[in-house]
Amino acid sequence: MARIYPFRALRYDTQKVQMEDVVTQPYDKITPEMQQAYYDRSKYNLIRVILGKKEPGDTDAFAPIPGETPQTVYTRAAESLASWRKKNILREEAEPALYGYSQTYTVPGTQEVRERRGFIALGQLYDYADQVVYRHEQTFPKHKSDRLALFKATRAYCEQIYMLYSDPAFTAERLIFDAGKPADLEITDEYDVIHKVWKLTDPTLINLITTAMQDKKLIIADGHHRYETSVAYMHERAAELGVKASTAADEESPSERADEPHTRALVPPFPEAAMMMTFVNMDAPGITILPTHRVVFGLENFSTEAFLTAAEEFFDILPLVEPNTEELVATPGVAFIAATRDGNHMLTAKPEAIRAALKAMHPEISDRQASLDVVQLHNIVLEHLLHLSHQSIAELKNIRYIRSAEEAVEQVHSGKADVAFLIKPVTLDQLRDISLANDVMPQKSTDFYPKLLSGLAIYALD
Fold it and tell me: Can you give the chain as a three-state secondary structure string?
């Protein structure tokens, strides 16, 4: 059962700040240059909370000295948040609400304009074993420890995670958007994406949406690290409270007593049992998944000729004049482009050879996983042909993940990398099938565009 809750969000007071000056992209998409730009834009920019700068003299956040008052990016984040609330830069809404949310954007590399629609709410947290929330990617342990430290310090969720669900009837979209009500907030971000927000407080509408979501399975599109961190935080808090986190959401709550048979609990069983999410219907138009290319560096004695010779066992190899991603997308079957300083080559998989190799090397990989371009790239090319260990890939020792094909190729030609692998985007059908089968893809297999803005709403636990 997917439980969805309205909440009294903390929101920026638009009489005191310009919203474009205080919102950000998600923390894991912020480069050092973007971080500085956000710092310069406003002293109330959310960057100071979600991704603050380290300062000289900071103590170790994960191993503080006993008796010493810690000073870290996390303590400063909590101080900033508390100060902004005290100054009413951030105000708590007077009543619980859901928030309609639309993003109008141009698909990168094209002239096509799309609109993605969804809504922001609190979503109950579940272990993956409960088979309510499903993942599609592996995660990095380091990122989770960072987010947990931030959550504990701030006691707030400042960013939404992006959840997919299926509803061919478009129930939420019709309830939220068909009325034609003008948006309460409109922002254009640095990528020229237009973000609109509608505050929804009508109890009947909220009940219809939350009820319609009860039977949905949820798939994490973006935010695996934050979700898994939040689940760990939920369990930690549940132990302190003496409740079972896995069943707390389904136990009878005060608003579901026998004398109130027609109402549902509209608050989580305890604050840490839910987090802020944006829910998007995967049956609706407007969803875009971009590829995330792989750039490999630091290889000893890398030779294009030796690599291609080894790759011939598993791939048909075609020289290319240019690393043309349109040609890649038009190539049937599993394929990717290898760009080196010596030239560009299309690698098209030999299915039988790949299947046999994966069965021998990784019998735990399902046939569904084995059919994916990104799985074949990681397991056959990166691990088997280039001899990168699974751990070194997970720890980013020899690999970078880059959205722009041009940037990936430029890193090779500038000497910053040995080889770039340009890949096709994962399809929505592939993602759904992998997730609901409890399989996973390698990390950074998908890049949903555009990102959800951080700072539109905040869920404060206290």
Answer: CCCEECECCEEECCCCCCHHHHCECCHHHCCHHHHHHHHHHCCCCCHHHHCCCCCCCCCCCCCCCCCCCCCCHHHHHHHHHHHHHHCCCEEECCCCEEEEEEEEEECCCCCCEEEEEEEEEEEECCCHHHCCEECCECCCHHHHHHHHHHHHHHCEECCCEEEEECCCCCHHHHHHHCCCCCCCEEEECCCCCEEEEEEECCHHHHHHHHHHCCCCCEEEEECHHHHHHHHHHHHHHHHHHCCCHHHHCCCCCHHHCCCCCCCCCCCCCCHHHEEEEEEEECCCCCCEEECCEEEECCCCCCCHHHHHHHHCCCEEEEEECCCCHHHHHHCCCCEEEEEECCEEEEEEECHHHHHHHHHHHCCCCCHHHHCCHHHHHHHHHHHHHCCCCHHHHHCCCCEEEECCHHHHHHHHHCCCCCEEEECCCCCHHHHHHHHHCCCCECCCCCEEECCCCECCCEEECC
